[in-house]
Known about the structure:
- The model is unreliable at 3-26 and 45-68 (pLDDT under 50).
- This protein has an 8-stranded mixed sheet, sandwiched between helices.
- The chain has a single domain (3-21, 51-358), classed as Vaccinia Virus protein VP39 (Rossmann fold).
- With 363 residues, it is α/β, with parallel strands linked by helices.
- Helices cover 33% and strands 18% of the residues.
- S-adenosylmethionine (SAM) binds next to α4 and β5.
- Residues 85, 91-92, 104, 107-108, 135-137, 141, 157-160, 177-179, 194-196, 199 line the site of S-adenosylmethionine.
Amino acid sequence: MPRAHPGNRPDAAEIGSGGETRPQFSGPSLPPEAIAEHISVDSNYGEGSTDRDDADSAFFDRESSTASLTESIFNYQYENGRRYHAFRAGAYPLPNDEAEQDRMDMQHHIYLLIFGGNLYQAPIPQQIERALDIGCGTGLWAIDFADMHPEASVIATDLSSIQPSWIPPNLRFEIDDAEEDWSYSYKFDYIHIRSMAGSIANWPKLMRQAYDFLKPGGWIELTDFETWAHTDDNTLPETSAYHEFQVKLNEAAIKFGKEMNVAPKLRGFVKDAGFVNVVEDARKVPLSPWPQDPRLKELAMYMNLQMMESIEPYSLALFSRVLKWDKERINTLLDGVRRDLKNLNYHMYSIVHCVYAQKPLES
Ligand SMILES: C[S@@+](CC[C@H](N)C(=O)[O-])C[C@H]1O[C@@H](n2cnc3c(N)ncnc32)[C@H](O)[C@@H]1O
């Protein structure tokens, strides 16, 4: 059964004024064609920023503040210097510590940059009754969505209780495993699933449950990055550390039982589940600031920082637990990956896939 999150802020207008220390990014929004088209290479390379704001300390203020949060949620597991979730320990291979929370927050802002500041793309009505965010992480998306839809009751679930306490009154965080049988006593108008690559063992079951718990005519939206770097000009050698990293990461995730590179499959997942009016928006996102276009270059600078912060959390547990590599071997590969991410002769990009679809009205 889901457990309710302790915090509820009294007034939505207070967001950003009461101890919020989340990093805020602003930047250019990208018209779809800028990403869909061939990307020109800049021959005068720039440099990315490596600054990172402090983590939100609100988390430490709220533990054990209600009876509904038990030790099983906060009894975190520590491994290789990183902190992992306690509820359903071992189920999700990425950490939940402050560095990871910062990374998730930065990724939220990168999604906003990519999609022109839009929180979602599905054409949901202006007034909805209920929305669900699966695997909400630090909850920034859910907070923004709840602020944008004050008429709606929003539930956001995660294995980790890493969400802030001061939240819109129409939002509730719950600690829950999305792979368990859902027990909601109502149906949703909209279900949002973002960056769940490597989190889900049984996508058809997740899609089936989402279908069953949507109202007829309700929308589902899934967004994720491919965990595979493409180039249009074959500039990433197969002998590179980055290439080895992505091959091993995807291999280890499959062995672990939670495939990582699911983004290209999202469209098929929703179609197979019976959703209709399926729309896919796929965009190229450069992994380092090699493009000439200044808007793409700026996005790529954020993306490069995000990649630098992602490679360890994504691989550490999978490489050590599944591939049985020791820390030295992992570090050697990751050092090489960091060098490759700084090598602007490698014109790498990922593809972000946003898929939205509707439950048929007659269902
Ligand atoms: C990469 S984060 C994405 C967070 C958020 N959706 C976003 O886009 O910023 C993945 C999140 O999914 C959560 N997660 C993984 N497996 C889960 C599961 N079976 N049920 C619920 N949450 C899960 C993790 O704890 C983590 O917070």
